[in-house]
Amino acid sequence: MTHAAEMLDLYPRDLDGLDRTALIRCIEECHSCAQVCTACADSCLSESSVADLVTCIRTNLDCAEICETTGRVLTRHTGGRTEPTRPLLEACAAACRACRAQCLRHAGSHEHCEVCAEACRRCEQACKDLVATLG
């Protein structure tokens, strides 16, 4: 059991109809993607062709911050507050989509970009899946 799942199990109220599985998956994918994007940006900074990776680095860092924020907000997403959640999830999915596209441009030369693109794909899908459960 993950920490997100464990904490939601201990939450003293119900989740007001939220899909618990989708919520947990999204929290976990957001935090994972933030870590991978940060590591990818750091790896890009260590490449000899760093000047060619400036846009990728900025996109990685933007995506990392958006994913981390989304994961934190979702972690305290209890009591049925869906109004701010939908646009946040949509923004996170968009950031992941942009980061994935940028990383795929470099994936053939930099394996860390390939790993990052996959993490972004998973996070984007988790955000979309959670949005679909919001009604």
From TrEMBL:
This is Four-helix bundle copper-binding protein. Gene3D superfamilies: 1.20.1270.360. It comes from Nocardia jinanensis. InterPro entries: Csp_YhjQ (IPR005560), YHJQ-like (IPR044543).
